[in-house]
Each structure stands twice: as C-alpha cells, then as structure tokens.
Design goal:
Helices cover 32% and strands 28% of the residues. It contains eleven helices and 15 strands. The two termini are 40 Å apart. GO terms for molecular function: L-glutamate N-acetyltransferase activity; L-glutamate N-acetyltransferase activity, acting on acetyl-L-ornithine as donor. Pathway: Amino-acid biosynthesis; L-arginine biosynthesis; L-ornithine and N-acetyl-L-glutamate from L-glutamate and N(2)-acetyl-L-ornithine (cyclic): step 1/1; Amino-acid biosynthesis; L-arginine biosynthesis; N(2)-acetyl-L-ornithine from L-glutamate: step 1/4. Pfam families: ArgJ.
C-alpha cells in the first residue's frame, strides 16, 4: 500500500463533500494529536485572502495543531463577511477538537470575489471532524478535497533516520494555474513527526521553499491565497533539532527539500493546458541567487514558452530573456543546450551559434519533458527551475474560467 500523510505518527485527517463544489470533495482537515512546531510561507500578492491573514496571525508563535482547507471558493476580496468566515472555520474546528483556535490554520482555494459560504462549510466541519482517521484512504481524500482545476491529486511520502529514529514525512499539494515564483496559486501541506525547534523550522522552510515552490511557473500570475505549511509534531522523539550543528539538520533539510521539489514538479506537470514540462538549469553562475533569478526570468518568458510549444529551438528568445533579468550577463562566455529530458544539443558555445540538425532537435522537442541548460562559465553556483509551455488550450480554458 502506498504511504501518505496518515503514516506520520499522530496525524489523522479527512476529506469530504460539503456542497460548495458539485459532486466533489471540497473540505479537508489535517490534525496532529499534539501541538506541533509550525512554519509557513505565504503569497506575495498585495491582495491577500482572508485565510492567509488569519493563518499568518495564528502561526506567528510557531505552533499549530490542525489545518482546515476548503475548495471551490477562495474567500478573497470578500470583505468583512469573508474574514468572519475564515475565523468561523478555525473556531468551529477548534471547538470540535477541543483545542485553542489559535492552533488552527485555515486555507481556501477557488474563485475570487464570490461570497463565502460560511454556513455550509462550518456545517461540514462539524459533521466531518469526528471522521478523522489515520487510515490511508483518508490521506487520499485530503489530497483530492483541496483540488480546483487540477486534473490529479498530488501526494508524497518519505522515510529517513535521525538519531536512530525513523522519521516520517508526508505531503499534499494543489495547483495547476496562476502558478508563478514567490508563492503563486498553490497550496502545500507537509507533516512530519521529527522534533525541531519552531524558529529553526521557519528558517529551513523558507530556504527549501526558495529552491522548490519558488522555482516553478506556469503563467506568471501570483495569486491571493497561497501557502506552504509544515507541521513537525516531534512524536519520533529524536533529539530536538535546534541549529545547523545538530546531526539531524542536514538529513532533515535534504528530505524536506526533496519533498517540496517533488510536490512542486507535480504542480507544474499539471499546468492548465500545458503540453510540455520544462526543466531549466543554470550552472557555473556567480551565486545561487543569481542563477535562480535568471531561471525565473527565462521560465516566465511567453516567447520562450511558445517556442517550446511549437517545437522551435529559438535560442535567441532564451538569451534575450536571460539578458532581461536585470543581472550582469557576459554573453560571450555562455554555452546553451536545448533538448529533451534524456538528450540535449549544444546550440551556442561561448556565445557563438553552432551548426545542428534542426529536424533532429525538433524531434527532441516533441517530447513532453524538455530541458534547457545555460552554462555561464562565471562561477560555481547552480540552480534548477521548472515550467510549462504556453498553449492554445491554456488560452481557451482561462478565457471562460468563471462562466
């Protein structure tokens, strides 16, 4: 049986249908039997949804015990009524679980600017809190209950050891459109039974998000609602991790990053209307921050995306996007490779175009998983990012999203 968030010690959950979405699960609850160290990263959009405001406040002390998520309504641009609805979600779940409401985090996803159905969702919480379980199907119910335009559920699970203790880590995520670096339209919830100090967890979460969720893009739009939340309840009973000197630090951070990259890549692979999953890699850069910034600029270029959709090895668009990243750029040093996941062709060497078989490279670009590598020959840092092509299906889908 495939493991998921229910295999993390002390974690129970449930996903249910409340009626906000037609015939689909639209409410998810994740609960730790003990308060957990908690950290999160939230959307950078200046229009902030009510659940983001509430969760930022509740997680400020680095502790949480439960997360409640609704799908079908974003509870964004809903004013006082929406804020009261987000608070009601935390209050009703806290009452059902007999915990402090400040230990409850809340998330929403769906259409922006529609009156929030507080009554239906609170009733759903009251009816379903009693169903919390660690049965494996409950984890899948949660993964499905948080979806909107996604075409499949996104889950992950990792086991590793710290201090001779088995550590479990599970995660779920959603997202397929309005995906852009700096936390876009996506939600991700990761739970683990490792013991770690809250402030240090916050530092690690920020660093790993920068290398995973903040390195994906589908359409360049950052949304109003999105967040990554990590709960670590300590039930593995390892020596608590407090600093980089602790022996569990390196292995925990490595596995957390692996989990985040896995979920982030699933989101990109489900991009609305997308036909290509594109991995961007920059090597031999001055700094990792430099490499990440340049990847974001290239991966978000509509001209690069459309070239990949059309199987056109138009390296000029890639170089132009790199040059527009607002960074010092020594074009005369670079090598550029374009192709598929398994085979790339060098098209530039030290800034000079090379001869290549255009028919062969177009054949490589017919694959669903593409790769673009830029070697700057200007340092030792590197980074990776992930994106999609821009298709006619994306335009058609998003032209009638609310109607």
């Amino acid at each position: 049986m495939i493991k998921n968030i229910t295999n993390v010690r002390g974690i129970t959950c449930w996903g249910a249908h409340t009626g906000v979405k037609s015939m689909k699960r639209d409410l998810a609850i994740i609960y730790s039997k003990v308060p957990a160290s908690a950290a999160a990263v939230f959307t950078q959009n200046q229009v902030v949804a009510a659940p983001v405001t509430v969760s930022r406040k509740h997680i400020a002390d680095g502790k949480a015990q439960a997360i409640v998520i609704n799908a079908g309504n974003a509870n964004a641009a809903t004013g006082k009524q929406g804020m009261e609805g987000a608070e009601a979600m935390t209050e009703s779940l806290a009452e059902e679980l007999n915990i402090d409401k400040n230990l409850v985090l809340v998330a929403s996803t769906g259409i922006i600017g529609v009156k929030f159905p507080t009554t239906e969702i609170v009733k759903g919480i009251q009816e379903n809190a009693k169903n919390l379980t660690n049965r494996s199907n409950a984890g899948s119910f949660v993964a499905n209950a948080i979806l909107t335009t996604d075409t499949f559920a996104k889950e992950g699970f990792i086991e590793f050891e710290v201090d001779g203790r088995e550590i479990n880590m599970g995660g779920v995520a959603k997202g397929s459109g309005m995906i852009h670096p700096n936390m876009a339209t996506m939600l991700a919830f990761i739970v683990t039974d490792i013991a770690i100090e809250p402030k240090f967890l916050k530092t690690i979460v920020k660093e790993t998000v920068d290398k995973s969720f903040n390195m994906i893009t589908v359409d360049g739009d950052t949304s109003t609602n999105d967040m990554v939340i990590v709960l670590a309840n300590g039930l593995a009973q390892n020596d608590i991790i407090k600093s980089k000197k602790d022996k569990g630090y390196t292995v925990f951070k490595k596995n957390l990053e692996e989990m985040m990259v896995h979920l982030a890549q699933l989101i990109v692979s489900d991009g609305e209307g997308a036909s290509k999953f594109i991995e961007y890699e920059i090597v031999n850069a001055p700094t990792e921050t430099y490499a990440r910034t340049m990847i974001r600029k290239i991966s978000d270029s509509a001209l690069v995306k459309t070239a990949m959709f059309g199987r056109d090895p138009n390296w000029g668009r890639i170089i132009s996007a790199a040059g527009n990243a607002g960074l010092p750029f020594e074009y005369e040093k670079i090598d550029l490779y374009i192709g598929s996941e398994v085979k790339t062709i060098k098209v530039l060497e030290k800034g000079i175009p090379l001869e290549y078989d255009p028919y062969y490279i177009k054949k490589l670009l017919k694959e669903s998983h593409l790769k673009i590598v830029l070697d700057l020959h200007n340092g030792k840092a590197k980074s990776k990012g992930w994106g999609t092509d821009l298709t006619t299906d994306y335009v058609l889908f998003n032209s009638v999203y609310t109607t």
